[in-house]
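user: can you give me the structure for this one chain? tokens are fine.
assistant: on it. calling the predictor now.
[tool input]
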Amino acid sequence: MKKGIRHKIVSTNKKIFIGNGCPSEDCLQCKDFTNCKPILSRYSSIPQYVIDQSIKKLSPSAWKIFTFLNRRASFAGDEKKFGKCWFTFKQVEDATGVARSNMAKYIKELVRKDLITSEWFISNRRGNFKTVHTATIKWYQLHKKLGLKFAQSQAIKTS
């Protein structure tokens, strides 16, 4: 997978399409997954107890955002980065479909339910100002403190 290429999985009318420049309109009917293997073989996991305790107490939009943040969080050994992810509301909206105008409400819901901590700062890149948010996923911190192993997002070996 080329660096900088974004993949977006779209499902319409029982067709699944990965927006990676592939000419196929339906991935389920495709005979050649060469271009798609890098994205299809990656996965993220959330511990079952986190899902069981969170899914019923969160609104559907907060659950979408929580899942997105878990997918983006870092497993880096660096204490400053571990269990954290950086995002803009636009990135979350593009990935989840949750409107930016409601984003703060759902981030606050995740903080109130003690699933994440959240901070924000203003980034200035070449005169382009944008608000960047940081979330720390609390279950990551707990697992690290307890010395539990992580099933990192990784490629599934295929032969």
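assistant: here you go. The beta strands are 9-12, 15-18, 42-43, 84-87, 116-125, 128-137, 154-155. The chain has two domains: 9-42, 45-149.
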